[in-house]
Amino acid sequence: MRTLTIAAMISLDGVMQAPGGPGEDTSGGFAFGGWVVPYASEDDEIMGGALERPFDLVLGRRTYDIFAAYWPHVPKGAPHQHIADAFNGATKHVATHHPETLEWRNSRALGPDIAAAMRELKRTDGPDLLTQGSSELLHQLLATDLVDELRLLVYPVLLGRGKRLFDDGAQASAFRLAESKTSSKGVLVTRYVRDGDVRTGSFG
Prior knowledge:
Layout: E1 4-10, H1 43-51, E2 55-60, H2 61-70, H3 81-89, E3 92-95, E4 107-109, H4 114-123, E5 128-132, H5 135-143, E6 149-154, E7 175-182, E8 188-194
Parallel strand pairs: 1-5, 1-6, 2-3, 2-5, 3-4
Antiparallel strand pairs: 6-8, 7-8
């Protein structure tokens, strides 16, 4: 059975919107696009952990379009060519209403029932599944208890507004901290693995 990992760059208050550039996603009047750029020297270290093993990508349509407009066109010898090679070579499973417009190589549409499609995909043979960006899709995956691992990159900024990784619809679940380190620029790099149900207690 395949595992599903969320890899997300988030602020201290959980915002994940438009980390890479000012024009990436301005919906809702978001004005802080590119907020991870001051920490760009750490990108190779941060991305490396999630890309060490073969993977398939699971993407929402907006993130797919952003990725498809960029990664296939990264020139040879560019600093992030290894990421481009990994993304371009991976199978992309996309939540979309318009499968006929998926032009990036190795792209496939998920069915209309995302939860059912993901449960079936996890049961098939193949590489583990990795999702990035795609906040609306992530909310569905978290609400239906499909996530096995979280790779969270927590940046030392407070944004106050924007699309967040976790919303009130997330399924209550416990995770165990498997790895943690801090980059030279203060980015907290963590890996959490699923650890059953939420446990409660009393100090009394």
